[in-house]
């Protein structure tokens, strides 16, 4: 993207804590206008997604909001959930333009970039010992979104295969849903029923204890 000539000398900028930022001073010192807002569809980057996908969303925001590039640099750092960690990993004053910013961002988070996996990878996602069904369902759904070309029936069978909770396996195997959405709905109904039953049993135990204490 085109950059305006720098009105300030190239140099380093130290924030109030004394640490050197990765931006040159004419970027860091640029006065930000009031009322800046990040579009909700951009969200924030936590280091777990594809950095290229996030850059695509952010560049769309630059165009839609008509941000000057000086402003865009600062808005970009605000989208990072751990911007301090990322900034400290960069050499002070090393970011001179948007191409520098993109290159360093990609390099830092390149290990998080999505890789194409075959459908066989779905059978390696298994419920861990001590992991709740709710947590496993969330993790399984997130992980399988990264497997390109995964068929619905493979996703369904992979989830059932990865479960350690035998009661749920038996429950799902009876009239097994034909869609993954249906499978998740049936799973969460089972989870909520178990939670209600568990809470009810705890309440009964508490009531019996209170009755026994009062009688004694």
From TrEMBL:
<dbReference type="InterPro" id="IPR005162">
    <property type="entry name" value="Retrotrans_gag_dom"/>
</dbReference>
<keyword id="KW-0808">Transferase</keyword>
<keyword id="KW-0695">RNA-directed DNA polymerase</keyword>
<protein>
    <submittedName>
        <fullName>Reverse transcriptase domain-containing protein</fullName>
    </submittedName>
</protein>
<dbReference type="Pfam" id="PF03732">
    <property type="entry name" value="Retrotrans_gag"/>
</dbReference>
<keyword id="KW-0548">Nucleotidyltransferase</keyword>
<dbReference type="GO" id="GO:0003964">
    <property type="term" value="F:RNA-directed DNA polymerase activity"/>
</dbReference>
<feature type="domain" description="Retrotransposon gag">
    <location>
        <begin position="78"/>
        <end position="164"/>
    </location>
</feature>
């Amino acid at each position: 993207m085109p950059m305006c000539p720098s009105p300030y000398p190239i140099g380093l900028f130290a924030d109030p804590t004394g640490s050197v930022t990765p931006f040159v001073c004419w970027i860091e010192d640029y006065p930000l206008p009031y009322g800046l807002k990040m579009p909700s569809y951009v969200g924030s980057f936590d280091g777990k997604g594809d950095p290229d996908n996030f850059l695509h969303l952010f560049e769309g925001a630059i165009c839609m909001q008509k941000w000057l590039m000086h402003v865009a640099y600062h808005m970009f750092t605000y989208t990072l959930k751990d911007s301090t960690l990322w900034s400290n990993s960069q050499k002070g004053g090393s970011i001179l333009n948007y191409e520098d910013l993109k290159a360093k961002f990609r390099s830092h988070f390149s290990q998080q970039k999505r890789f194409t996996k075959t459908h066989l990878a779905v059978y390696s996602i298994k419920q861990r010992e001590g992991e709740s069904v709710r947590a496993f369902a969330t993790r399984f759904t997130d992980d399988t979104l990264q497997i390109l070309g995964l068929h619905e029936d493979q996703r369904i069978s992979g989830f059932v295969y990865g479960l350690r909770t035998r009661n749920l396996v038996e429950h799902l195997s009876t009239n097994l849903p034909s869609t993954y959405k249906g499978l998740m709905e049936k799973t969460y109904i089972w989870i909520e029923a178990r939670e209600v039953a568990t809470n009810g049993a705890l309440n009964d135990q508490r009531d019996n204890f209170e009755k026994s204490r009062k009688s004694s």
